Amino acid sequence: MKEAGEYMISFVICEDEKVLATEYKNEIDKFMMKYDHDYNCKLFSGYNKEFNNYAKTNTDFKVYLLDIKTNEGSGLDAARMIREELNDWVSMIIIITSYNEYKYDAFGKRLMLVDFINKLDKCIPHLHKSLDICMKYYDTRPKALKFVYKNTVYNIDYREIVFIDKEQDSKRCILHLINKDVMPYPGTISHLMEILDERFVKVSRSSIINSDHINKFDIKENSIKFKNGEVLETISRDMKKGVIENVTTS
Questions:
Q1: Contact residues for 207 (Cβ-Cβ < 8 A; gap 6+)
Q2: What pLDDT is stored for residue 248 in this prediction?
Q3: Which of 12, 143, 180, 232 has the fewest Cβ atoms within 10 angstroms?
Q4: Alpha carbon distances (Å) from 107 to 80, 104, 119
């Protein structure tokens, strides 16, 4: 069962030999039987427009299994695109290839690869070990709010969010970040309360706060001052109790 704040795991397999791609998928299915996480497998035969669009727009936690050479491009070029062009340093990348001579070149490019697996040398046991590493990272990673806005994928660490309020005359929300930047979020307050974790407290019909950032709650003024100096005054009197439970009052 998918818990609030948890994202689907997408195993993205790019392999132009259909038999191998199917074998990798079957091994992932076996491996994931010991985990209670939602996941899917997405198969591509090359690094084409469809692959690039999926990498750009899919907000799942992704584990890539990339073949170095296909009829449509290079796995190393794809890895570079994921890291440098998309600025995605969260997804996990595993290279699986029969071209072992590319190993040192691959790691030398500083693409933060999980592993470089030789198809001809005990591939499946090595794959399982690499998947173990990916799942350990998934289970201990900092939580983040992932969303697509204007064809760009955003990955905002929960720790960076100070408070959220509803944009006036809109269904969108505005994220207020620790550095005082603001960012539109294309969703509702109700939806955010379903996916955010316990550190986030709804303080009015139109506002959510990150209790980790509260400096003090002024009961008389009915306002919250945050550690970065920002102040929120739209506190519902009906929701005071939840605020008081998360902060010492002034």
A1: 163, 164, 165, 166, 189, 232, 234, 235
A2: 52
A3: 180
A4: 12, 5, 17
- The whole-number pLDDT of residue 221 equals 79
Q: How high is the mean pLDDT of the chain?
A: 87
Nearby residues of 214 by Cβ (< 8 Å), 6 or more positions away: 224, 225, 226, 227, 243, 246, 247
Question: What's at 18, amino acid-wise?
Answer: K
The residue type at 113: L
Of the listed ranges 55-59, 101-105, 173-177, the one predicted with least confidence: 101-105
Half-sphere exposure in the Cβ direction for 190 (13 Å, CA): 1
Please give the helix or strand (H or E) that residue 202 lies within, else none. Answer: strand 200-204
Q: In angstroms, rounded to a whole number, what is the distance separating the alpha carbons of residues 108 and 114?
A: 13
Closest of 70, 71, 95 to residue 82, by C-alpha:
95
Q: What angle, 0 to 180 degrees and rounded to 10, lies between the N-to-C axes of helices 18-32 and 123-140?
A: 50
Residues 6+ apart with CB under 8 A from 95: 66, 67, 68, 75, 76, 79, 102, 106, 113, 115, 116, 117
Residues 6+ apart with CB under 8 A from 30: none
pLDDT tens for residues 8-19? Answer: 899 999 999 999
Residue 104, SS3 per DSSP? helix
pTM listed for this prediction: 0.65
| Torsion (CA) 71, 73, 74, 79 in degrees, nearest 10 | -140
At 176 the three-state DSSP class reads strand
Other residues' Cβ atoms within 10 Å of the Cβ of residue 43:
15
Residue 199 has pLDDT above 60, yes or no: yes
